[in-house]
Amino acid sequence: MTVVQHMNDPLSDSSGKTAPGRRAPRLFSFLQAHPEAVSLLLLVLICASVAAINPAFLQPSSLIDMGRASVVTGLFALGVFTVLASGGIDVSFPAVGAVAMYGISTLVLNVFPDMPMALIILLCVGVGVLLGAVNGVLVHELRAPALIVTIGTLYVFRGVLLVFVGTVWLMELPPQMVAFGQWSLIDITTSSGVTVSLPVYFLSLPLAGVLTWFVLNRTLMGRAIFAVGGKADVADRLGYNLRAVHVFAFAFAGGLAGMAGAIQASANRMANPFDFAGTEIIVIAAVILGGARITGGTGSVLGTVIGVLLVTVVNNVLVLVGIPSTWQRVVVGAFILLAAAFFVLRDRKTNI
Amino acid sequence: MRRDANLLVLCVLSVVLLALGGLVSDGAFLSPFNLQSMATQVPEIGLLAIGVMLAMCAGNGGIDLSGIANANMSGVAAGIVAISLFDATEAPALFTLTFALGCMIVGLLAGILNGIIISRFNITPILATLGTQMLFTGVAVVLSDGRSLTIGAPDPLYALGNGVVFGLPISFLIFVAIGIALAAVLRLTPYGMRLMLTGANPKAAVYSGFRGVRIITTTYAISGLLAGIAGIIIAARNVNVKWDYGTSYLLVAILIAVMAGVRPQGGHGRVVNVILAAVVLQLLSSLLNFIGLSNFVRDLAWGILLLCFLAVARFDLINQIAAFAPSRRLPRAAE
């Protein structure tokens, strides 16, 4: 079987081909199997040097800030990773998240003000799954590059939201959503007397991570996703249902985006229909830095989380060490190109 | 040679839209002033769309996502150089020349960078141009410190963006001239032939001894050059250049290419169709404006249009309908 799944079979095919006993090839083959190790190294390096330059970085408050900032990006990234693994790409998730967030908030405010929070989250996820499934069906039926199809649905979803639902910021969210956003897991009082808290919604990221890991590595659907992403025509001949795989991967990503929407609204205590616009590139960058190949079939949940942390840290620490925030894009863009170049090197070595 | 059904549809569409606009607005839509103002809006997005088309034609998932970022970076970089070298009011001609040359050089270099990354390092075009898009935007932000840069309106530059010759805007004429030149290059030169063949079947192209690296690099270089020229026109029309100008252009450029019947899988695309598709889209956009609909409706319409044209391409609807229509040119097999 030609399915490449670097996560579960470290060293299996590459170490046999390189000369055993020499150190450099072994290190290289380790990196081939675990590309996210490079990102992890980079993350540790950045954190260490920033901590050395500005110790304020290691304060609980700034760490918690970063944890909070990574939740929404992380949920989006796990969804995009699933789609990338299946051989597609999704850029419509910001619109999916915005539709779920704003649509459900409007519904709750105007029709069911007493709706329990669990149901609100469930509805947001439901809206996301539905829109994601639309993406999946379109990508499968139109046989066009997923990038182009999801650019189209990005505009359609956002257009429907802004034309038919509303364009006004909702500043007064229902109390149960506000309470959920402030529900604290850990409270830490800093030396200066300010209390920072790690909110409960932060747990959604590890939960979603475990769920994604389980789906991709412990279910037949996960097997099928990597198979289709590795080589779609071969997977088709082996009897995998391409349509089901595409719809599932996009619906899963949509569901996670919907959840991200619910969390964003609760955390910010308002629903802004223009939210998330422009986040797609940074999220895709995070997934790529986490070791997923943009052509599909590879990647790991752990790598994706590392990628998200790396991007979040880069976004937050540049200012701390005195680099103007204007450089942020240059740094992330350079990281993407470096990561891409590294993966190409990796593939070349495997193919020889 | 097969009839180009797509070209026919685009021609019919533009006539229908013009007629509809005339009807809705009691003729104001067809006034020379309105036609001119529409024509001045086409070139910048049209040039970017031709760039996307070239990248798509190269096949292998080819796409250029860095177009508008490149145009903005070119405008900012060349603007800084031109401002530091010449005073816009004292030496307007030299200023314009420096600015225009600077834009083209920066755009071309950025395009070559794209091409080298894609062809030499074998990085998937989506990923490569996504990375360079961030890089170019980032460079523009750093150079301009995140603010908009005032280029000013020295005469030759202003004329480039807003001037009129024989009732036609100069920028539109430049756009059409570039389009014709490129169409000739694609149809008449070995490069054009090789580009389309590479896109149609990359493997066969390799075994035929085509120099893939050179073809791909040239293609993205041209795309970059076009983005640089778009940068000149943007500056000429808006007086300012800014790193985040035209954020929706990325979608619109792809939409125009898909509407023009360019196959995203590669190997087929005509410049004429891209020019016409850009015109059709501008007509539609102005028409929606005339009716008084918001920009959100326009964005929604763009999204729906993109999906519809993908469906048309997927199921080959145009040719299927054409097959039902009676035509003397179809051979009659039964008789």
Helix-strand pattern of chain B: HHHHHEHEEHHHHEHHHH
Integer tally of domains of chain B: 1
Mean pLDDT of chain B: 84
User: Poorly predicted ranges of chain A (pLDDT <50, ≥5 residues)?
Assistant: 1-21
- The N- and C-terminal alpha carbons of chain B lie at a distance of 24 Å
Instruction: Characterize the quaternary organization of these chains.
Output: heterodimer
The CATH C-level class name of chain A: Mainly Alpha
Shape of chain A: globular
N- to C-terminal distance of chain A = 18 Å
What is the domain tally of chain A? Answer: 1
What's the architecture of chain A, going by CATH? Answer: Orthogonal Bundle
Radius of gyration of chain A, whole Å: 21 Å
Number of helices of chain B: 14
List the defining traits of the structure above.
heterodimer; A: 352 residues; mainly alpha; ABC transporter involved in vitamin B12 uptake, BtuC; two-stranded antiparallel sheet; disordered N terminus; B: 335 residues; 14 helices
Notes on the structure:
Chain A contains 14 helices and 2 strands, in the order αααααααββααααααα. With 352 residues, chain A is mainly α. Chain A has a single domain, classed as Orthogonal Bundle (ABC transporter involved in vitamin B12 uptake, BtuC), CATH 1.10.3470. Chain A has a two-stranded antiparallel ribbon with strand order 1-2. The longest helix of chain A has 27 residues. With 335 residues, chain B is mainly alpha-helical. Chain B has one domain: ABC transporter involved in vitamin B12 uptake, BtuC (Orthogonal Bundle). Chain B has 14 helices and 4 strands. In chain B, the strands form 2 sheets. In chain B, strands 1-4 form a two-stranded antiparallel ribbon. A two-stranded antiparallel sheet of chain B has the order 2-3. In chain B, α11 runs parallel beside α13. Chain B is globular, with a radius of gyration of 21 Å. The C terminus of chain B is likely disordered.
